[in-house]
Amino acid sequence: MSKQKKLIIANWKLNPENLKDAKKLFSDIKKVASRTQKVQTVICSPSVYISELNKMYSGHRIEMGAQDVFWENKGKHTGELSPVALKSVGAKYVIIGHSERRALGESNADVNKKMIAALKAGLNVVLCIGESKRDSQALYLKFLREELESALSGVSKNYLKNLIITYEPLWAIGKSADDAVSSHQMHEMYIFIRKILTEIYTKNTAFSVPIIYGGSAEPDNVKELLSSGEIDGFLVGHASLKADEFNEILEITNSI
Ligand code: 13P
Question: Does the N terminus or the C terminus of the chain have fewer Cβ atoms within 10 A?
């Protein structure tokens, strides 16, 4: 994972509906993503498409990722996907702790087990943390601290080179650029996350972990968020399903 490059990670969620459409979307994104040299593009497609999409591009400017993973690599776990299996079909990244997984019952302890298993398998982990709402006493900061600290429990500093932290507040997901985090709020979150990382690890290590933002990242707001600095990229939901919008995000990011 290059520290110089910005990370633009597409979370396609449960889209597109079939492999043919997934290939078309990938191919439209590839036209731009294969030439934006200052950007590392990652496509987190539904896992069943990873292997086929991975065959469509052989360079490194686009890498494939999954949206979840299990903490065991084999055994009696019907329906689960292991880190080693994901890696073997071409996944280099995996999103862990997305709020849509947590809403289905994933606990902080589950996130921690998934993190450790994925990092051990050599995957880059895109850890998501985010509060559902903000309150005037700033209790949400306590909630975020708990999410981050428990996710990192027992994760040795040697693995941090493969970690990306995504601040993705639930109140900003699936809306529009106007509802997303402001650059001021992002700046505060950046300081907050770095502070917690510094408490757990050394300062140098803490500052080497990329911090990205997710929640209605669109062509209309990425420039301002990037220009205010201290943000290493985006986790893009709905805008990653429209190749022209996603490609615009890639172009804007590449030009900064
Ligand atoms: P939207 O970009 O659609 O708000 O989704 C954000 C997200 O959940 C990415 O993981």
Answer: C
Q: Is the pTM of this model over 0.90?
A: yes
Site to probe by mutation for ligand 1, drawn from 96, 98, 101, 238 as the one with most ligand atoms within 8 Å of Cβ, is 238
List the structure tokens of 131. 């509060």
**pLDDT for residue 229:** 64
pLDDT tens per residue, range 6-21 = 999 999 999 999 999 9
**77 tagged catalytic:** no
- Strand extents, DSSP E, 59-131: 62-66, 91-96, 124-129
- Listed residue (161, 216, 203) closest to 3, CA to CA: 161
Residues of the chain above pLDDT 90, percent = 91
* Whether pLDDT at 2 is above 60: no
Angle at 239 between CA 238 and CA 240, to 5 degrees: 90
Q: Is 235 in the pocket of ligand 1 (CB under 6 A)?
A: yes
Q: Which residues pair with 29 in a beta bridge?
A: none
Burial readout 96-118 (b: 16 or more C-beta within 10 A, e: otherwise): bbbbbbbeeebebebbbbbbbbb
CA of 166 to the centre of ligand 1 (A): 11
